[in-house]
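Worked example (supplementary).
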Amino acid sequence: MTKVDLQSFLPLKTQWFHIMLSLAGGEQHGYGIMQDVLERTTGKVHLWPATLYGSIKRLIEADLIGESNDRPAPELDDARRRYYRLTSLGKRVLDAECERLQELVRTIQVKRTMVTE
Amino acid sequence: MTIAGRIYRRLAEAFPHEFRMAYGDQMLEAGEDSMRRLANKHGAAGIVRLIVDIALHLPLEYLSEMRQDMRYAARALAKSPSYALVGILSLALGIGLTTNVYTQAWALLTRTLTGVANPHQLVTAETPASYPYIERYREQKDLLTGVAAVQNSVEFNVALPGQTAKPDRVYGQLVSPDYFSVLGMEPQRGRLLSAELDKTGITPAVVISDRYWRSHFNADPDTIGQSIRLNGQNATIVGVTPTKFDGALTVTPAEIFVPITVPATLAPELGDDVLHNRNLKPFQLLMRLAPGVTVDSAESALDGITRRLDKDDPLAPPQADKAKRLVLMGAATRVQIPRDLRPKLLGFYTFLMTIIIAIACLNLATMALARGIGRRKELAIRLGVGASRFRLIRQMVTEGILLSLLGGAAGFALAWALAAITAHTRLPAGSPLNPDRSVDWQTAIFAFMLAVACGIGFSILPALQATKTDVAPALKQGMALQLSGHKRFGLRNLAMSAQVAGSLLLLLVTGFLVLGILKSNSIQTNFNPKTMAFLFIDPVRDGYSPEKSQAFFDRLPDRLRSSPAITSFALAVQPPFLPGDDGDFHLTVDDPHASSPVQKGVLKQTVGAGFFAVLNEPILAGREFDERDQRLDTTPAQANIGPPLPLVLNQKAARAFFGSVNGIGEHLRGDRRTYEVVGVVPDMKDASGMTQGIAYLPLTRHDFAQPPSGGITIVARGHSAEDALGGVRSVVASMDPNLTLFNVQTLSEYLELIRAAMRSALRTFGGIGLFGLVLSAVGLAGVTGYAVAQRRKEIGIRMALGAHKTQVLGLVLREGATLVAVGTVVGFLGSVALAKAMSAITTEFSDAFSLGVGDPRLLIGAPLLLAGLALLACYIPASRAMAIDPLKALRQE
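After joint prediction of all chains, the assembly is encoded as:
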């Protein structure tokens, strides 16, 4: 996969970014992702169910995430749930996006110091 | 469960099948869980937000599936390029021709005038009226909010500012000043005519059309206020009409609008005190119904008023005559059609469009059905892995729509090209301009809708059929699976026969029209047509006074006779061979003994001295007009006094009145005069092939003082047409170099123009017929080809068991032949019935149909041609069946 391909995904849509960020920590099911995002952003970002699953569908189509075959222990599992994980392309796209955001933050900081001086 | 919960569940269940399979349960779970939490935390607002989210995503998911379907369809079509190509071509022809019929006929009949307010309130009368009557109609304020008087196709000699060359001949309308207010029109520039401003006695103000403004003034804003010379008099341009408006009540585009308040010296049409003379009826009515008034109630009220007005008119039909005096029709469209005829005409064109598009769809459907068999395995796999049948049907319909849209785009291009050809076809006589029949956005929408409808139309049945599959056997046997009832009359065979029937019907009906036109398009002349030319002259519109014009025409014959280049000549209102005439003319045999005089309608033509001699036509009885007749005074004031006017009848008219080809010395009454028959001449076919009863009236001093709108025609013959033209030109120039000669044509050119118009009709109808023929052949070849492919194994076994190649050929051909035979019989009977019905309900087509229907060439030839072509189309795949190698065919399974 070339660099150009990664760039074509950037900047990531907010929902996509949050979903992928949740999956960076490991496999997760849809409702879990929703909860995770809510906690992580202290309620600021709410992934509504239809938005969430619509995004998941498109992320799978774009080959950024995939369905995971590993399931938790049977006593913790719910048969209706599907688990998702980042694909290798997904990981690289997420890295590139984080890189891009960090770059942005650095630029902002430089600018801010120039203004305050 | 709460109401919100139920709504959420309903919406979640409405998502596309595939989405629900993958995420439905989870989305429900997540939604119901969050609902509780949201209700606690945010109350109703949170719940609303949740519902809005799912409601917004529902259509998005369907759109995304459609995109996917489209991509898949594009791939599927790319994989079978020959199917795609044939399909696109068929649809392009079908959609293109239908769109062409739509722009050429349908839109002309239905498209409302541009720039007009509430066009459906506008009505006109079928017959023209006199101005005093119009003033009485105008008083009916509770019925009509406005009544304007219009004279159509009035020609003006126009000299623009700074123009040194001879003036141009321009078509226009003479209108009452309230014309534009009745139309409810706003000017594009300047002002329009108005009853307050455009009074008698001031410098005439005229309005020009947008088209004329662009073509002659380069859309210059300073045009307003400019002075032009109109028929030699001064006039001021005060305004420009809105874009694309070129006159109400007229097919011929009008470029200049002149108020009837101008003096008769400017517009000779206004002579004879036409605004006060109730005996002259040159005006068409343009009326606007008051809100809430129906056409029927207005018609009966106006009819009553007309009847009362007629009481004071000794020349009107007797009061006992029950016939309507005034019949209204809609004036919202460019072409006005009597109210009873309108649905019939629209019906014919709807039928024509439907059958063209149905044939294209049937063709595609047969191919899609055949293709469906080849895709059974693929479809079975997709059903097996969980695709819903609905999804597969939608997929196949999407494929159909995609194909149809591609075909539609090509078809639209075809319609555009055909419209461009039509726009460049010159009309045979009269107007130099074609009415606007160009392809516009409405047409584009029409073609697009048509394409979508076609796409759904031809693919839905095959899709239903193809997805009606038992998964297991289809997976096992694939292609070789037999369709139930494949040998009997299945859906596919029915579609195929219907297509053959439809194609034959189309071929025959268009064939009837084509043959009718061809038969009618043969003008016979008793002389070499290359020796004749026509010119038109109009001294009054060149600024002559009526007296000066009369003097000019008194001198003209002698001068023409002395020209060595001219061997013979005559004057007339119209050139010979023109289809149509000056209008219907009703005459009654003037027999005091007859109890109830019979009125008969004939055509009227006004011709001068020696007219038939120039045409080399024999006089069957009596004499033709001579120069004494040309010096008669026939002003309307002279009607009913003085001796009867001479009249010449053609054979057909003479037979109609007197039952024989004579009647010399008999008197006829009509048009407020008495006529005496002085001669009988042979019937001549006009350019549309009709021989009609014609009464020839003499051209007289009145016509010279007040030439009709088209001017006076000089018909001249010499050693060659060019000689004759040169002769007339030099004679007229020697009399007055400032006189304009216009519409100069040789007879050959003139006939060529008429033929060009005919050819355009032939091209359209012939093209439609041919289209049906080609499509049915393509369809048959495709279907037979698939039938052969399906029966490879059977054929292989037969051949292995010793069947001859000819037997195999017969086997395959028999099936095709049955379909063709059934289709041919149905199509033949249908088309004869249709032609009969068409000529019975409308006169528009009866002439062409009556000439074409009886023709054995068509009745026998067309079915043979179609059947032959169809069998040939079957033969090609059948011959391929003969080449099947039994070993290979058997091993394949």
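Two points are worth noting when inspecting this output. The radius of gyration of chain B is 35 Å. Chain B has 26 helices and 21 strands.
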